[in-house]
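Proteins fold reproducibly. Next comes a concrete instance:

***
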Amino acid sequence: MNANDDFSILNVSTTDIPEGERVPMLREFYRCGVVKAEIDAKEGKPFEARFTSHALPEAQLMIGTLFGARLIRTKQLIVDGDDSLALIVNRSGTIGISARGRDLLLQPGDAALTSAEDVMTLERLSPGDCLSLRVPRRVLAPMIVDVDDAVMQLSPEGAAGVGLLVDYAAALVREEALAIPALRRLAVRHLHDLLALVLDPADEALEIAGRRGVKAARLRKAKVLIANNCWRQDLSVTTVAQELGVTPRYLQRLFETDGKTFSSFLIEQRLKRAHRMLREPEFAERPVSSIAYDVGFGDLSYFNRSFRRAYGATPSDVRSGTAE
């Protein structure tokens, strides 16, 4: 567990715990945790719990799985004053949720909003994992028309904002961005914006979220696409914009607000890849011209000029180890 004043990480896993101790351990976690629930384990069925909880200012982000048991929030476990809302996004497998007289079946990519004020049952029906984002009601109330109307409404796979929210949240966790206080505060605002977009994809919500959360999520996704495909010589602002479902000009403006251009970021990623290849023994016999082509450059002279400008040394200097 890692914690400071407004941030903590808690990892829960039954992997190394004897089978007979797993359910009691998890019952204690949910009895004392922020989210209170009973654990109803299926006798004779395999039981597994594996998730990470990130407690943030005005948000709790959880990613992982619980299989072989039901989570039950009874009337007795509803905490006075806790009116928080949690969006549950099923990433794989199947989840069943029952609350407010409704039964929802979440397939991969589906999402649903739940309320801490409701009696609820949640059960993973087939192996898989999910993401949940829990926020205070007061955060969402000013951002969407009727937040209570959104509770226990199914947001199917492909619904506005769901994919962006999942990609953005997963990237924050993967890159450990939440450990940096300034980034953490910004990330929480973005998560709030993206959640509002999922729950109310109307023009007003799009306008609110578009100012921060959606733009941040799209820019991050664009950068990941470029970094993973920078070697392609046909990669362009047009092809990446098509992948994101936006116009090339919109994508260019996203990069401009980040202090770069699309082209400069693409060149930077290609040069980084070339720099790594020049230092790796497995590419020691490959000519510099071949490496330049492999990372996406079609002009060797331009590659050499760009490389020297970026690293203050020639590709040959880097390969030989004479560069500082």
Remarks:
- The chain is about 40% helix and 25% strand.
- The chain has two domains: 2-161, 230-324.
- The radius of gyration is 24 Å.
- Residues 230-324 form a domain with the Arc Repressor Mutant, subunit A fold (CATH 1.10.10.60).
